[in-house]
Amino acid sequence: MSIPRTDPKFRFEGKFEIIPESGCWIWMGATRSTNYGSFRDDSFKGSKNVSAHRASYEIYVGKIPDGMLVLHRCDVPLCVNPSHLFLGTHLSNAKDRNAKGREAHQRGEKQGAAKLTWEKVEKLRKDNRTYTVLSKEYGICIANISKIKNNKGWIRP
User: Fold this and answer.
1) pLDDT tens sequence across 71-107
2) Over the Cα atoms of the chain, what is R_g?
3) Does this model's pTM top 0.85?
4) Burial level of 62, CB count in 10 A (0-12/13-18/19+)?
5) Under a CB-based contact definition with an 8 Å cutoff, are residues 39 and 50 in contact?
6) Dihedral angle sign, alpha carbons of residues 71, 73, 75, 77
């Protein structure tokens, strides 16, 4: 007996590629602005669009209890391999993120958009030129120059 084309598992399995080196199943279908995959199907908790990793969990593992998140062991948002997924709460998700060094509120050089290094900050603090000149040289706004100079920004942990 053939599987109907409307079957969620049949439709789902045509939308990922397996990466042998990592074992990740990388979602190749639609994505959300959050860089997670999106899967359209009416059979998931009354929603037409669900995160692809949540759909994978429900297809291959089972129902997701209310209030639970589906987390990634591999930390690859587009991975839908059910063996890389596990259930957790918002708190366990935050603890997992922090344990892996991916906190949203990194400081100093670790902050993703940082334009300075600690070495440059120390040099800037000793520099007596005007804030305008320093702002142009370091490529940061005058307000940030002021915060650094007054030890309100770039405070060592």
Assistant:
1) 999 989 999 999 999 999 999 998 988 888 776 665 6
2) 23
3) no
4) exposed
5) yes
6) negative
